[in-house]
Fold these 3 entries.
Entry 1:
Amino acid sequence: MTALVLTPNERRAHRAAAHHLAPVVTVGSDGLTAAVEREVDGALNAHGLIKVRVFSDDRVAREHMLAHLTSALSAAAVQHIGKLLVLWRPVPPKAATEREGRSPGPRTVKVVSFSKTGNHRATVRKVRVMGNERITPSGKIKRREARSVSPKKTAAD
């Protein structure tokens, strides 16, 4: 795989976005192992922009680690400052989950009804609304769609 190349403007924007981030992966005394590469790959899939802390005093070794990570994971090197490496890779689109197309679960909603005269305090009720229900402007709970009727029952009538 090849490393991504960033324009100076893109690099500047990613550096600014990475400023407040904490290091997600740390490279210890064993160096860059296969397990560390898997962790960096997983973090890039999840976040896109990450910091990696390297506990090595050798600057040349850190530069080799950065070059190896960018080429092996097809990522872009945003910054190498001190013992921190900043990497970026576009986040892949998420796969559709099994909940796609299903109604939402139950939720608790506050229904506020004001007094007719305006002299009294408004009453607040907490109502649990299921996924197939809605609240009308008057505060009543109704089904979102009318209940389907069996064709056998309509033919019998």
Entry 2:
Amino acid sequence: MAKTKAIEQLEFTLSRELDLLAAESLKNDLLALLQKDGNLLINGAEVERVATPCIEVLVAAATAFDESGRSFKMAEPSPPLCDSFEAVGLADRIELWRAS
């Protein structure tokens, strides 16, 4: 009987300020996690401010994880994070990613 390998859970906490200056760092952090094996769980509880470039990075990361057959989930998205996604017409993404 073959053993199945358990999928590792990768975790990442978003910073409080996801402004324009944070977008490049966020992209690099998520790209590094994409290179590892496992599903990704993002903690968004501390986010106080979000700029559109950071939303774009999160959407791209979720797409990349999905295309590689892994999950991209978000735990505790803060109200400002949810509001920012809603403001750009992507509120459904937060609900799709919400960890249950």
Entry 3:
Amino acid sequence: MSADERAAGAEAPAGEGREPRPSYEAASARVEEIIRRLDSGEASLDETLALVSEGKELIELCAAELNAVGNALEELQLDELVGRLEREADR
């Protein structure tokens, strides 16, 4: 999946027996829901453990998405710099 597809909220294809990976936006929204539920103090111990586990996975997914976008931006900036240097060298 390209950085453009990730930024547009596209979901990764599902593996066999696996749910599709949520988009960054969906994962971020779910983390906010989890935080609200945990802050409410109404979750049981089992639910709290499940929510913390789910939240951790979603935060890791969000971090990976942000890292991929950051890497793509760095690559784009390097490509622009190379192009500029090549144009200046051709003068």
